[in-house]
């Protein structure tokens, strides 16, 4: 079955310059949508040129800039039917060693940024009575983790934020879902495990910390995450809202 609902439609992506964000932008464009793709300036400096994709700088922690970017996207591309929050940063350190400023930064980007972006998208979609919003959470939202600072807490709260938004927006015909990846081969993941020998031995080799914990025995590719994202944004997911879709090779429920 071919996914539909993208041809001639407009989408907005925050965190579009990252590994998962880029894959989602490419998938949306390939499906026929035009896309307003935003991220921090340094993250889009080398963004690929794709037909129908407009790259723009945006810091999701700035609510006024987020509102302005969504308004600009609508002015340039027309009513937004698809909105994605894919920005995120890691949390840093064991909790007893965690600096309060880093805790705050993680909450500001992963949670409050998600609020700014999904609120702006919901406001833009509400007058049209249609649309699909997707936030990229994490399978870390449901499993306590050691040494990841405020990251799991920020993601757990983001999951709940999107469920509440979904409940409020359902009567308006707007669906809101969470996509929860497990370990995925992006700069965030490779950066976490790199050592003086590089990250390949740990990520791909026999020493892989990840493979032992993933029933399917492999890390996700950004494209795996993007394909699931496209489904949640498509007409075929028309009865799916307030859902958490785990794309983690079975790691959460093993
Ligand atoms: P990434 O590091 O490649 O992408 C994250 C993007 O967020 C970057 O482009 C970064 O510039 C952007 N960002 C950070 N702060 C921002 C801000 N203030 N304003 C706007 N953009 C900002 O990492 P990846 O893997 O593509 O991550 C995408 C999402 O997937 C994140 O929310 C991450 O937490 C989540 N995720 C990733 C997993 C993985 O293994 N790679 C596993 C589970 C969840």
From TrEMBL:
<keyword id="KW-0560">Oxidoreductase</keyword>
<dbReference type="InterPro" id="IPR003560">
    <property type="entry name" value="DHB_DH"/>
</dbReference>
<dbReference type="InterPro" id="IPR036291">
    <property type="entry name" value="NAD(P)-bd_dom_sf"/>
</dbReference>
<dbReference type="GO" id="GO:0019290">
    <property type="term" value="P:siderophore biosynthetic process"/>
</dbReference>
<dbReference type="InterPro" id="IPR020904">
    <property type="entry name" value="Sc_DH/Rdtase_CS"/>
</dbReference>
<dbReference type="Pfam" id="PF13561">
    <property type="entry name" value="adh_short_C2"/>
</dbReference>
<protein>
    <submittedName>
        <fullName>2,3-dihydro-2,3-dihydroxybenzoate dehydrogenase</fullName>
    </submittedName>
</protein>
<dbReference type="GO" id="GO:0008667">
    <property type="term" value="F:2,3-dihydro-2,3-dihydroxybenzoate dehydrogenase activity"/>
</dbReference>
<comment type="similarity">
    <text>Belongs to the short-chain dehydrogenases/reductases (SDR) family.</text>
</comment>
<dbReference type="InterPro" id="IPR002347">
    <property type="entry name" value="SDR_fam"/>
</dbReference>
């Amino acid at each position: 079955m071919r996914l539909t609902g993208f041809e001639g439609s407009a989408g907005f992506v925050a965190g579009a310059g990252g590994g998962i964000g880029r894959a989602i932008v490419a998938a949306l464009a390939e499906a026929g949508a035009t896309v307003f793709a935003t991220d921090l300036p340094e993250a889009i400096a080398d963004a690929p040129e794709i037909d129908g994709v407009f790259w723009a700088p945006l810091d999701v922690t700035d609510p006024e800039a987020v509102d302005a970017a969504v308004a600009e996207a609508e002015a340039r591309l027309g009513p937004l039917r698809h909105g994605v929050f894919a920005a995120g940063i890691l949390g840093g350190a064991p909790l007893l060693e965690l600096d309060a400023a880093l805790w705050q930064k993680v909450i500001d980007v992963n949670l409050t940024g998600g609020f700014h972006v999904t609120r702006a998208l919901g406001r833009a979609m509400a007058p049209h009575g249609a649309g699909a919003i997707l936030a990229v959470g994490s399978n870390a939202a449901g499993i306590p983790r050691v040494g990841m600072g405020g990251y799991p807490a920020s993601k757990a709260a983001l999951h709940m934020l999107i469920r509440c938004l979904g409940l409020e927006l359902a009567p308006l015909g707007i669906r809101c879902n969470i996509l929860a990846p497990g370990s995925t081969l992006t700069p965030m993941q490779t950066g976490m495990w790199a050592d003086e020998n590089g990250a390949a031995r740990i990520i791909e080799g026999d020493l892989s910390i990840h493979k032992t914990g993933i029933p399917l025995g492999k890390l996700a590719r950004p494209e795996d995450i993007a394909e699931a994202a496209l489904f949640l944004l498509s007409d075929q997911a028309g009865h799916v809202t307030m859902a958490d879709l785990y794309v983690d090779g079975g790691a959460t429920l093993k």
